[in-house]
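**User:**
My hope is that you can spare some time for a protein that puzzles me. This is the protein in question:
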Amino acid sequence: MRGCAQAQKDYEHCLTWIKPSFLWMMYRCGWATKADQECVLAIEIDRAGFDWALANACLSHYDRDVHADRAAWQRELKAAPARVQWDPERDLHLKALPYRSLQLGLAGEAARRYADEWTVSVTDVTPLAREVHALVAAGDLEEARRRLPEERPYEPAGGAYP
């Protein structure tokens, strides 16, 4: 059985997820406390790469308003190098909010480009995760909010979504 942890690059069998929301990541990794998720990295990628991934993405779920039928969606999903899904955004207590955050899955060509071309920087944000979590646990939500990384809405180039 093939796994994503193998030493050689195997972009065809792995799915790498871009999760632009810090608090959603904290929900996913339990503030960097879940087993095998004790380290949290912030990966900065270039804008052109993110735009390319969105433009070449398929929804991760079937939507009859978007796809002709389930079979057409399955063909599109299999061929697409990226997939889009939306998960509930999280608050400082990691409770679901009434709006969703983008999750962008990358495979094949998109995963290769992400690793080899789009990555601008990698930053270990584990200390920040633990710091913000400690502030939340202590009830200092205002200071916790001030420490969160800045997140801005995605503005498509040219004003229209790719």
Observations:
- The beta strands are 16-18, 41-45, 57-59, 82-90, 96-106, 119-124.
- The chain is about 35% helix and 25% strand.
